[in-house]
Design goal:
135 residues, mainly alpha, globular
Amino acid sequence: MKAAYLYLCLIASVLCGCSADKPKPPRDLIPEDQYIHILVEYEMVQSFEFMHGDSVNVRQLVDSVMQHYGVSRKQFERSHNFYQQDVQAQKERYKKALETLRQEMVRMEDQRNKKDGGTEADTTATPDSLDHSTQ
């Protein structure tokens, strides 16, 4: 989870340096709240590839995330390209994404402590482990 957090921070800082002409919103633009949820899971999956070098499983996990939210990769890419054009707003979206990750880490730690009585356990998150009830 720490790697996912660091990866999101890196992405957010990279976006601060990007600038381009603002495109028109795609007609299939993903609503912002849903986009943030997808972004969290997408970045977690990407950090899995970074940490484990397993691009085959990453593609399957990304497909699973997109299917869960009922969007295509292309739709996500179009929405992501549109949203990242407004750097300040995208920074705020990443802040929300980081807060979501923080809350998830706390939830997972609480579950782990209840299950293991406070002993060390694996807290690796997968896209399916995230709470989708806030969609």
